[in-house]
# Entry
Amino acid sequence: MDSSPTIQRVTHTVLLADPSRPEAVEASRQIEHVLEELQIPCVSGSLEDSEPIPSDPKPDVAIVIGGDGTMIAQARRLVDHSIPMIGVNCGRLGFLAPFSPASFKKHARTVLGSDRTLEHRMLMEVRIEPADGGDTMTHRAMNDGLITAGEPFRMIQMSTSIDGQEGPKLSGDGLVIATPTGSTGHNASSGGPIVDPRLDAIIFTPLAAQSLAFRPCALHGQSTLEVVLEEVNVGTSLVLDGQCHIPLRRNDRVAFSRYPTLMGFVACPGHPFLRILHDKLGWAAPPRGSDVESS
# Structure
C-alpha cells in the first residue's frame, strides 16, 4: 500500500463538517474561501450515515473537518465511494487529520493539484456469528476492535485461530485487534507495536493476559483472525473504533479480516508519519523536567 500520486487535478469537492461546532464552522468558512480563490466547486454534505454523499457530480475528494472520531467515522462511510479524504483538525489530537485550516491554505495548490499524494490504508471487516444461531453481523473498522471483559470485570477466556489454524488461548481482560492506522491508539496504550499506516497488517494485543508468554503479534493483512468467546461476563462486548458497541455471549465467534477496499488519505506535504508520531504523540521524546547540574 505505497503512497502514489493521483493523475488529475481536483475539480469537485464535498465539505463535511459539524455545523453545531463553532470551530468547525469557522474552519469551513476559511476552506470555502480557499476553494473559491482556486475556482474549485464545493458542496456541503452531512456527517450523518443516513444521509447520502453528494454524487452529481461525484467529488474528487472529501474535505472532512473535525477530530479523530469524525475522521474514523467518515472513512468508514467514504471507503465504498472511493472518495479520498483531506482531514482538517478541529479536535484535540487530530492524528488522522494532518491539516489545520492554515496548512490547508498553504498547501492547497499541491493537495488539490495533479501531484498530490495519496496514502492508501486498510480497514478491517469484522464478522460476528452469534452462538444462538442469530443473524451474522458484519461491520467495518478503521482503527480497531476491542473485545473487553466488562462487568463484573472477571477475566474472560478466548480461543483463537489464524487462517483456520489453531492459535493461542487467552485468559485476561480482553483483546485489541487493530489496523496499522489504529496501532497508535488502544493497541499502543496496551503495549502493542506502532505500525506504519501504509502497511498491510492486522495486529492483535492481549489485555492483562494471565501469561507472560502471550505477546502482541502482527499478522499479514490477508490473514483472518477468528476469536471464540469461551467464558464471558454479563458485560463482555466488542467495541469498534470506540463508536460501535456489540454485546458478546459465550461461544460467539468474531472474525477479523482486511476490508476489500482501501481508503485514500491525502498526505500533508512535509508531514510524514514519523514526524506526526513525534509531534502529536511525543514519540521518542526525552523525559521533561528541570535541568539540574550534576555535582
Summary: The radius of gyration is 21 Å.
